Amino acid sequence: MSWRPREAPLAPCAVAGSGPAARALARRAAGRRLDGVAGDDVIVLLGDADALPWADGVVYLGRDARAPSLLLPTALEPAWPVALFERALLARHPGTPLAVFGGFIVPLGGARPVAPDRLAAWLAR
Q1: Is the pTM of this model over 0.85?
Q2: Residue-wise pLDDT tens digits, 15-41
Q3: Backbone φ/ψ region at 117: left (φ over 0), alpha (ψ -120 to 50), beta
Q4: C-alpha torsion 119→121→122→124, nearest 10
Q5: Labelling 125: which of 38, 43, 87, 92 has CA 20 to 30 A away?
């Protein structure tokens, strides 16, 4: 998949990270009103733009009106027509919104409110 810069950035509604960025993001999420989903080495946090934490290496995600089921990098867009990109992804991952960034496709249907004990357990793995 190749990406190109967006003419106008999307408004952020999520932040994502993998590897060390994911762990830093999890540590900074405590005490914020966010929903989240995490895998082995990736985390996506959803919430109001002003509540999203920052950490080195994270990617902020937003919704493109042409592909409302996807959360995409705020500063980049797919080199393909974005509506076609959305259809292709949803054909493989039906029924859930998806976060797409840095080679990751993360289903967001399981996102839940972030709880400090869950963050601590995820970080301890």
Answers
A1: yes
A2: 999 999 999 999 999 889 999 999 999
A3: alpha
A4: 120
A5: 92
CB 35 within 8 A of CB 114: yes
Q: What is the pLDDT of residue 53?
A: 97
Return the closest-CA partner of residue 98 out of 115, 88, 7, 18: 88
Per-residue tokens: 11: 């408004």
Instruction: Residue 9: give the domain boundaries.
Output: 3-124
Kind and range of the H or E run holding 92 = helix 82-92
Distance between CA atoms of 7 and 105, rounded to whole angstroms? 23
Average pLDDT, rounded, for the chain = 95
Q: What is the CA radius of gyration of the chain?
A: 14
Domain count across the chain: 1
